TrEMBL record:
Domain Cytochrome b561: 181-377
Transmembrane segment boundaries: 223-243, 255-273, 285-305, 325-344, 350-368
Protease among keywords: no
Alphabetical list of InterPro entries matching this protein: Cyt_b561/ferric_Rdtase_TM, DOH_DOMON, DOMON_domain
Major location category of this protein: membrane
Subcellular location per the Swiss-Prot or TrEMBL entry: Membrane
Domain DOMON: 64-177
UniProt keyword Chloroplast present: no
Name of the molecule in the record: Cytochrome b561 and DOMON domain-containing protein
Pfam families: Cytochrom_B561 (PF03188), DOMON (PF03351)
Species the sequence originates in: Panicum hallii var. hallii
Amino acid sequence: MAAPSGASSSARLVLLSLLGFCVALSRQESSSSTDSCGAAKLAVASLVPFDTAGFRCAANWKQQDFVLRYKNTGPSEWSFVLSAPDKGSYVAVGFSGKGAMVGSSAVAGWASNGRGTVKQYYLGGKSPDEVAPNRGLLKLVRNKSAVVSRSGRLYLAFQLSTDYPQPYLIYAVGPDGNLPPSSTLQLPMHQSMASRAFNYTSGMSSSAGAGDGTFPAERKHGLLAMMGWGVLMPIGMITARYFRQLDPCWFYSHLAIQVSGYAIGIAAVVLGFRLNEDGLRNVGVHKALGIGILAMASLQVLAILARPDKTSKVRRFWNWYHHNIGRAAILVAVGNVFLGLSIAQETNAYIVSYGVFVAVWVVAVAAFEVKRCYADDD
């Protein structure tokens, strides 16, 4: 039987790439956070000045690993515990009626030398000078606030006296290793911030200004990129390599699928450049890979325009270029889709769904390659 062709080696590379990304994702999930909504009990429950049993939990700002626990603990009383990585900076959560930072009030907390500090601030403007300490419209319950630093995380706990908190939460994290001075309590300019519409009944949140939040721009970008680069391109490759007996249908099908994937991919790239990148980790690598995929896909489109005749002596060099650039684009695209899902910290349903597609695609490629080998042997 004939030796396995280049596509069989490509299939093995795709499978190894998939396994590598799955291992990386699992390691990232296991090591990036020591607190999650899946925990049976709050790790610092004994150090919080109120009972935290039965609190609801929501991961409202996944890019910064913020976890919010809350509960209506009494008549006109709401209790909150915000958990975030302790990077030697402050963390803050504000409450707003319209999702705007300016004009809202916030609770900020930080830990220094084993002591925690909790202060209310009125966000009168966007510069540090306009953020006034010990002022604001929130009614904090006295002696019911605390900050605890434990196992690399900061826990900001406080109670508000209110019938119902305002519907928008403004999250902020300060610059690493930069705490407010004890003399003025002035907050340094935040390193990153986010505004989230929050439903206290369902625990669901969405980016402010995103309508009902069920389909934010980040998810549109991800789904477009997944469909264009990560689904249509691999399907187009299968059409071209394994269905040549259906001439000329295979060619027009391959062309239609790849052009559609290219158009959808361009839409994903344009939308991606318009996204707010505040707080996103590894987004530079993801963006660079996306630009690389766009460049390789553009070369493929140009290759169609410069396609030599079958009888031309340079046709075999064109075939080598077209086939291998396409395979490289698919490999990078699959990896970048998984990287994008990891950066966005999407739900496991998206990761598993795309993983199933890639696994099915790899099995299909392997099956077609075996069939080709037997056909060549005959």
